[in-house]
Specification:
Layout: H1 3-55, E1 85-91, E2 94-100, E3 128-134, E4 137-143, H2 149-160, E5 169-173, E6 177-180, E7 195-196, E8 208-211, E9 221-222, E10 226-229, H3 232-235, E11 243-249, H4 251-258, E12 273-280
């Protein structure tokens, strides 16, 4: 492993440890709240059960359902109201506020499609950082030019073309992913081409940025649609999706966006990608 690869590996491990600590703190707080609620609810349930036993008797059972972890695409169109919302989120044991806004962007993407994939213009030896401004805050993403030069080059090209500016996150699944980058808004949109990019050789982690694909596409295929892993279900995905970056700042923003997921995988409010800018060093 080259020194730069080892450095990136250590950074990914440190980022993973930090994200794990955040999640564990959130889970611990939730468990404490659940125990408190459970004690109050338990006393009420026992009282009701005793009363029902005298009246009729009976038995209850639990019904558990699970969602589908597919990464094919669906979509939702934009709307235009302005209703800021602030929600407290626990991050590393402390409350942090993430504010969302429904103001619709003036433009939805650049309106372009392309006849062919972009030429390789990035330098894999350089560092590329994407700053994604969303309607719920900012995410800073370190792109992996060394291990995923094709995927990084594709994302950098589209971002510099303003392809993503004004689009939305059309697919949101709790404890799984947020997905965006579709210019059509129906889950079938793309830039006009596909490229064979680079699936990871290690496991996915919360905060990873990867390319969405349909079930029929070969492993590692990508166009413009992408997803950010926001929960443990997403981290369990197989290595069939081209990973080309990791959120280094703003995981709480991604998880805030995820919180608006509904059973049909559409968000309960419009979630916009306001802009994506690229820094090179």
């Amino acid at each position: 492993m080259s020194p730069s690869s080892a450095k990136r590996h250590r950074k990914r491990q440190n980022a993973a440890a930090a994200r794990a600590a955040q999640l564990e703190a959130a889970r611990a707080a939730k468990r404490r709240q659940t125990l408190i609620r459970g004690g109050i609810l338990g006393a009420f349930v026992i009282a009701v059960a005793v009363l029902l036993a005298f009246v009729a008797g009976g038995d209850d059972g639990d019904d558990v359902t699970a969602g589908d972890d597919g990464t094919t695409t669906t979509s939702a169109e934009a709307s235009s109201t302005t209703t800021p919302e602030t929600t407290a989120t626990t991050v590393a044991g402390a409350a942090a506020e993430v504010t969302c806004n429904d103001t619709e962007p003036a433009k939805k993407g650049n309106g372009k499609t392309y006849d062919k994939a972009p030429e390789m213009t990035i330098d894999p030896a350089k560092k590329y950082t994407a700053t994604m401004e969303t309607s719920c805050g900012k995410m800073v993403i370190e792109l992996d030019a060394e291990n995923a030069p094709v995927g990084t080059n594709n994302f950098v090209f589209l971002a510099r073309e303003k392809f993503y500016d004004g689009l939305n996150f059309h697919r949101v699944i709790k404890d799984f992913v947020i997905q965006g980058g579709d210019p059509k808004g129906d889950g079938t949109g793309g830039p006009g081409y596909d490229v064979p990019a680079e699936p990871p050789k290690d496991k996915f982690m919360i905060g990873d940025l990867a390319a969405a694909k349909s079930a029929s596409d070969p492993p590692g295929t990508m166009g413009s649609q992408f997803f950010v892993i926001t929960g443990s279900r997403g981290a369990a995905l197989p290595n069939e999706y081209a990973r080309f970056g990791t959120v280094t700042d703003g995981v709480k923003v991604a998880q805030k966006l995820e919180s608006f997921g509904q059973p049909d995988e559409s968000p309960s409010r419009q979630l916009y990608i306001l802009s994506v800018t690229i820094a090179e060093s």
